[in-house]
Amino acid sequence: MLIKIKHLYQRAGFGATPAQWRQMKGQGFDSALEQLFVEAKQAPPLTVISFEETVEATMADRRKAGRLLTQQYVLEWLDRMADPTESALLERLTLFWHDHFACRSLFGHLAIQQLNTLREHALGSFRDLCLAVAKDPSMIRYLNNQQNKKNSPNENFARELLELFTIGRGHYTEQDIKEAARAFTGWGSTYKGKYRFRAREHDYGQKTFLGQSGRFNGEDIIRIILDKRESAEFLVRKFWNYYVSAPENEAIIQDLTTVYFESDYNTEVLLRTMFGADWFYEERFRGGQIKSPVVLVAGLRRSLGITFGQPQAQLRLLRALGQVLFDPPNVAGWPGGRHWIDNATLMLRLNIGAGLLSKREIDLRFRDMPELEIVSDPKTRRLEATLDLAPIQEMTTGTDLAADWENLAEYLLPGSSRLELDRLSALVDDTTGDERLRRLLLVLFSMPEFQTC
Hints:
Elements (H helix, E strand, L loop, with lengths): L1 H11 L5 H7 L4 H14 L16 H24 L5 H13 L7 H14 L4 H9 L2 H6 L13 H11 L7 H10 L3 E3 L5 E3 L9 E3 L2 E3 L3 H9 L2 H16 L5 H13 L4 H9 L17 H12 L2 E2 L4 H9 L21 H15 L12 H6 L9 E2 L3 H4 L7 H12 L8 H8 L4 H13 L8
Antiparallel strand pairs: 1-2, 3-4, 5-6
């Protein structure tokens, strides 16, 4: 039972805090699952700062202020992911939608508005979410729908809507893209973050899309796409890759597709079905997912009670690891899986524990943007942090090395550790108290298994 709950917390959230781990040992699985959904529904909406509260100077100043505000929202989002009083399920699901509807947000007031939209509809109807994203100012600007006019249709949004957001390749034609683009003409936004339908720029003519004809607008296009079972299947496969991270089981995929399609894309129904199924907890589905940089950092913060002296260091760390929130590599989002790991990121991942536990300096240079290194704050180049190790210390005896290692490994690793006790003893040496715990944790965090869940 404990293994099931741990797997649930790691995949549906960011892992358990030490206090939650102790609670799990006396909690039933059904209760743990229900608690995740109750917390998600009780989560308050985000506070969205209006355009007027950002800056009213020149356009250049607005852009700079927008970037700084976006960074602030990234840090606040990481705080929510790491906070045990917030809904881990909701934040992890919002992270999924943030990747699915990948969008580079240059202006903070638009970034937080889009994030709030994703959270608001995260567990609800995908139909509502998809329409809300289509009207979202960040997405409108990112995919050039601002330039989509009846006399010169821009196909960017229509193409990505079909290829990446809903039904996937092989189920539409180039002509369908052109017709969908016509339907979305006139959908724009103001710089202040308001959706605006520009009636004079909309093409009201007859359109033929996916075999249907009519004077369609953008809402009609989304409705027609989602009336296709193929769209439900495309989305289910995305959920599978995110939450299961194993070779697809076609029978299960089709069962989940039926659930999602017949519930009219109710995401809560789909997730309850997935997380409540016995197959989800089978050994073949455990420990095979490589943690994304955000999940890795949030999980470390939850387990160690981390308070950063320079919170901006997290931004450097995430960039070095290959995941910058609100700044995906392209509209397809982050590739994920084994793409998270290369020679540089693997070494960095294995050394994060040392940077936190022993204040050893680790390499957080901007490899892909060296020009930023010149103007960056030197204080953000180290992971200066205060750790609250008392809760995790309670899991250990302080004297029985084998028992302490087993307890910590059971808490922090997806499966059992294969490290030999003689080797562990040599690494821990004859240390005691806080130093002994730190060495045990250093060993755990440097193990490849810790990079998975």
